Amino acid sequence: MLKIFKYLQAREWAFIVISIVFIVGQVWLDLKLPDFMSEITMLVQTTGSTTSEVWATGGKMLLCALGSMILSFIVGYFAAMVATSLSKELRKGVFNKTLSFSMEEINGFSIASLITRSTNDITQIQQTVAMSLQVIIKAPILAVWAIFKISGKSWQWSAATGVAVIVLLIMIGSLIIFVLPKFQIVQKLTDRLNQVTRESLIGIRVVHAYNAQKYQEEKFEKVNTDLTNTNLLVNRLMAILYPGMSLIMSGLTLSIYWIGAHLIMNAGGMDRIGLFSDMVVFTSYAMQVVMAFMLLAMTFILLPRASVSAARVNEVLDTPRTIIDGEMQSLPKGIEGEIELRNVSFKYPNAEDYVLENISFTAHKGETVALIGSTGSGKSTLINLIPRFYDATEGEVLVDGMNVKEYSQEVLHNKLGYVSQKAVLFSGTVKSNVTYGDNGEAQSTDEGIKKAVEIAQGKEFVEKMDDGYDSVIAQGGTNLSGGQKQRLSIARAVNRNPEIFIFDDSFSALDYKTDRQLRSTLKQETKGATTLIVAQRIGTIKDADKILVLDEGKIVGMGKHSELLKTCKTYQEIAYSQLSKEELENE
């Protein structure tokens, strides 16, 4: 939990120091009240005392109470400022750290868990910090100061207070021991609840199509019930705290008065008045001591859950990055648009078997290189090594003659126009999606946007939309068809005007006619750019300058379409499964 405070800025630390000063003033005012109460008690029992003297002392008590309340408001304001600023920094830190993750780190956390960590967990920390700054600082000062005030009054009363504090600490400690593991379970169940909810909403059409509403309801109900039951157990255990503290306070008050009654009965004359006054004052101070520990107990209610939340947030913030930026911050001169893989092998973290083995090939400037193979042959994995979504386990991946590890990621990615296997669109407009990211001013003009959409064969459907290029795109592009989403994703890559295009099975949702038109236009309009295409359809890649055939992570064929039909058995099997022998011969 303490590691979280390193994210506080100098301004927040200044607020904490100011809060401590005001808290000391607040405690001093609170502890002055029993002194005035003692004075009033003595005045009431002393012959010759006037009402004006009692009113004057009562007025001082009122001023102290008002002053304490004002200081409490000020401390609360500063505590809220510190807690809010900390939560802001943590949310920003978690979000930025998540954006910097490679696929390896992302796969270490579920999306539902990352959402919970950046929302629910940080909210828990914020609430606890806001409470703690007011309580954890005040409680020890109040307790020590009050104990100092009552020391020497009566060992019997001090012993009773000590027993009450020990019983309170045992009760709080026992609850914390039982409750802390349950808070960890609660956060994990919250992750699971978010995951089930997200899964149901994303797949709502499939749920309806298969009449699986009841199944999803039962799935949600189970997780929701588990979370509810765990929360109920935690809250029931914590509910013991308040009645227990009230019982201890009432018992302490009764003990002090019972001991005081015996002391007063055994005393004589004027000593009785002094003992009675001491008893009233001691009761007030003893209540302040117990109150200090009660304040700590209130924090302990939130602290275990916040500690779990802090550990989960720190887990994200402290996750080491596996993809480290190189030192090259500017584009190298000389070779442009060339990709080379030298004896590249790759296996996923903690996996035993290699997904890719000894891959070597070169894509020269302006060439179109296609990758084809059965599902699981390693095509997409190979493509992901070029933008450094993963780093090669062995061998080298070179772009423009330089190892990709030597580039800063910004420079490397600015060379690439990447279109993922699953078309990804963001909430906004057609225009904002096409110009997404760092594209430069030239590509952000209306003419540049229209040209990119036209090359991607999206002009017809975009201009038919109500607001054309300013038409709204829903989150995830849910108001578009799969083919429309793919074309806008391709337009985004084209608009970037990169040296290298990477299409990871990005034509699968297009019909054959649109596919052919798009590739033909793309080849004409992007001359000089190197293109890597992962595809399942022979028709998409047969015109490529070079085709790599992958099988179980190895290159089993390399060459043009006509060559592979004669020399590569795996390519023949794929080709004949899609087209007849006559069709292939005619082509």
UniProtKB/TrEMBL annotation:
Domain ABC transmembrane type-1: 17-305
Topological relation to the membrane, as annotated: Multi-pass membrane protein
Localization annotation: Cell membrane
Classification via InterPro entries: AAA+_ATPase, ABC1_TM_dom, ABC1_TM_sf, ABC_transporter-like_ATP-bd, ABC_transporter-like_CS, P-loop_NTPase, Type_1_exporter
GO cellular component, one term: plasma membrane
Name of a matching Pfam family: ABC_tran
SMART domains documented for this protein: AAA
Keywords, ordered alphabetically: ATP-binding, Cell membrane, Membrane, Nucleotide-binding, Transmembrane, Transmembrane helix, Transport
Transmembrane segments: 12-29, 60-83, 129-148, 154-180, 239-259, 279-303
KW DNA-binding (keyword) present: no
Signal sequence extent: none
Protein name according to UniProt: Multidrug ABC transporter ATP-binding protein
Origin species: Priestia taiwanensis
